[in-house]
Amino acid sequence: MNFKYSLILGFIILTYSGYGQDNDEILTGQISFLTSNNIYVQFDTTSKISPGDTLHLSNTNSACLLLKSKSSSSCVCSIINDCEIKKGDKVYFNYSNKVEAQPIEKPVAKTVSLEREQNVEEVEPLYTEKIRGRLSASTYSTISSDREDRHRAMSSFSINANHINDSKFSFNSYLNYRYILDNSESSSLQKNSILRVYNLGLIYDITPTLSATIGRNINPKISSVGAIDGLQVEKYFGKNNYAGAILGFRPDIYDYGFNSNLLQFGGYVGKALNKENLYMQTTMGFIEQRNGGETDRRYAYFQHSSTFSKNLNLFSSLEVDLYRKLNDETSYGFQLTNLYVAARYRFNRKINMMLSYDSRKRILYYETYQTEIERLLDDDIARQGIRARLNIRPFKNILAGASYSKRFQNDSENKSDNIYGYLTLSRIPEVGGRLSLTFNMNSSNYLDSKIASVRHSREFFNGRLNADLYYRLVFYNYTSSPESLTQNYFGSSMSYNINRKLLFSLSGELTMYNDENNIRIYARIVQRF
Question: pTM for this structure?
């Protein structure tokens, strides 16, 4: 009996000893981030792990991750054995059975070389720097035989610097400067020197799934809102779901500068999906815009884009106003102010088609335009439009297409019908180059026009120099005038790629109608980096 109890007691001691040993020889970690190629695992220490080791999920017995590289507290792995991995999963590594490499006598020089090779191994950076930018300068001049000459100079700068120096910081900007020569400043709305800041934002990735943006920024998920001066925060929940919030100001409605009176705030939620044959992104949100502390506009919006099997592309956006203030009386309801839907389908390599519909009302800001609200409400009619476009390639070197668009509204004002067609021969036999023919016919309440043009373009020096010549004939018939107007345009342009990132272009055009001649000259230099 004593022997039996002794055996049981010894078994218990060995069992607990075994568990204690296993816990001492097991490292546990957690999956912190996933990309399409790598799995990132966080440990307290990785001193017992080496590249080539395998890690197990806490609920499986088979190896699921192969370690590729490491740092002192994290590992970069790849999936093996078709395991299903998600963020937050617990993993472990048992190094009790790991065979330690036996020391082998080698020449000193080789030993030093091996040590250096091991020290070079570093974990793959979580963020990768990618910087793209563009700087351009241009001049535009109009020299007229009957009017004053006009000249202006323009420059623009844009940059998208993602994860600068592989860090959590990113920066983007788009600036445009225009200077008009010999122009008297008759009002605050007509200045010689104009600077526009469309984007100027600093982004910080707090974690791989949480980011904050400060400055002026246009959020592509809520592009209809436009530029936002202030703070934007966005959080991903898993791979597909996200939510965001904004707190800032609208740009000034007159000079597009900063205006602290135009407070705006709101939030949005969305879902993104990116698979082999399906891409989809849908965002819904709410925005309140104020002026001097009073509600100027309050609305909800929706935006969706998707691609199915690389053949069907869909895009839609809408805005619904929720607030109304008239004669100091506030009311709430739903009013559709903006709607846009577009679909593009690629039947095959030779045929594709696009259809779109839009309906837009004048946006009412009840504090900004409070003295004109009643007049604006009288013109509260949806301006609608439809468009259809067809492109075909009947033969290898021939492209053709046609489009029809129509604008209309209930009171028959602002109506317009437009028909456009083109035919392009990409390679002209014997002559070389490309030949394009286009025709456009437009009819509106006040004007009927017909425009026909022919253009020949050609490349030289292995594509580094592109040059073209064109002629355009225009007929204008104004409903308020019995006389028609005929214009002739003769033009030429060239662009030269000085190197892969530096481009210079020059174009000139002569316009002739009645006894008046106008010459336009446009020059531009673009540096990409």
Answer: 0.70
